[in-house]
Structures are given as C-alpha cells and as structure tokens.
Amino acid sequence: MKKTIITMLIALVAMVASAETYNYLKFTKTDNSTVTYSVEGLKLTYDNINVTITNAEGTATLPLAQVLNMEFTNDPGTTPSVLIGDVNRDGEVTIGDVTALADYMLGENAVDIDLAAADVNSDNDITIGDVTALIDMLLNSNK
Ligand SMILES: [Ca+2]
Ligand SMILES: [Ca+2]
Predict the structure, then answer these.
(1) Under a CB-based contact definition with an 8 Å cutoff, are residues 66 and 30 in contact?
(2) Which parts of 33-136 are beta strand (E)?
(3) How far is the C-alpha of 102 from the C-alpha of 104, rounded, in Å?
(4) 107 and 65, same structural domain?
(5) CA quadruple 105, 62, 116, 125: dihedral positive or negative?
(6) How far is the centre of ligand 2, averaged over its atoms, from the C-alpha of 106 (Å)?
(7) CB-based contacts of 141: which residues, under 8 Å, 6+ apart?
(8) CA of 71 to the centre of ligand 2 (A)
(9) pLDDT per residue as tens, the chain (143 positions)
(10) Which has the closest alpha carbon to 121: 106, 136, 107?
(11) How far apart are CA 129 and CA 64, in angstroms?
(12) Is residue 137 within 8 Å of 85, Cβ to Cβ?
C-alpha cells in the first residue's frame, strides 16, 4: 500500500535527518512539482493524512496522498512558481477557482486548494478579500 510506504519513508527520513549533512529536504509531489525545506531545525511529524514539516522558517503541511518522493539535497531548488488565482491547481484561472476558494472559506474540508495561489491580494491570509480580488482578476482578464 502506497501510503504505508510513504509513511515508512518519512519515518526513516525523520530518523536520519539529524545525522545527514544535507541542507534541504525535497518533496516531489504527485503532480511532479517539488517543494524544498531547509533542514535547519527540521522536525517531521505525520499522521494518516498529512506530513507536517517544521523548520526554522515555519511549519508546512503536505497531504501524504500527494507525496511521491522525498530526498535530502543541497540544492535549494527553485521556489515553485505559483499561478496566483489558480486555487484548484488546474493550470488556469477560471470561475472554478472562485468556487473552490468559496468552498474552502465555507469550511468544506474536502476542498484541497493551493493556499499560495489563493492569497490573491498577497496579505498572507486567506480571506473574503481574496475572493473579491480573484473575481476582479477574472473580470479584468475577460474570462
Ligand atoms: Ca484553476
Ligand atoms: Ca489574502
């Protein structure tokens, strides 16, 4: 079972994290995007659903189902380019993203959105202001 393997992998990485000399931990996601975290102060915890990565820079959570691979690296990687407004990660900004964001705001737990893309007005918070900004964006792009 894939989830079991991933869970074991995370346990293993968590175990060797302090012994390694690499600077970064890189996750490859099922959509082939990658996220890289500094190992400074790194701590990994996980449950049946998510892996939580805590380091000196903060805390991030990844759904286990999206984790394809993880490895240590000295390459900081490139910050994955986020298409602002593409809340549902389908590669374009459409009314579907407004719906996804609205569902998220309404607390629909099943909604998996790209929080970085959803912060349309760049205030580091997901609020109704982002819904408004997203709608403005759509209106201005004539979609
Ligand atoms: Ca979209
Ligand atoms: Ca915002």
Answers:
(1) yes
(2) 34-38, 43-46, 50-55, 58-63, 67-73
(3) 5
(4) no
(5) positive
(6) 15
(7) 93
(8) 32
(9) 567 777 777 777 766 655 557 888 899 999 888 888 988 888 888 888 999 999 888 899 999 999 998 888 888 776 556 889 999 989 899 999 999 999 998 886 666 788 889 999 999 899 999 999 999 999 987 54
(10) 136
(11) 30
(12) yes
**Is residue 50 one of the residues assigned to a domain?**
yes
Which residue carries 């737990």 as its tokens?
109
- Ligand with minimal distance to 105 CA: 2
CA of 133 to the centre of ligand 2 (A): 9
Query: How far apart are the C-alpha atoms of 137 and 135, rounded to whole Å?
Result: 5
Residue 6 CB partners (closer than 8 Å, separation 6+) = 64, 67
- Domain extent, residue 128, equals 95-140
Tokens of 81: 């380019």
Q: Residue 83: what are its φ and ψ, rounded to 5°?
A: -85, 105
134 C-alpha to ligand 1 centroid (Å): 11
At CB < 8 A and 24+ separation, what contacts does 128-132 make? 130/101, 131/98, 131/101, 131/102, 131/105
Indicate the residue type of 97: D
Total domain count for the chain? 2
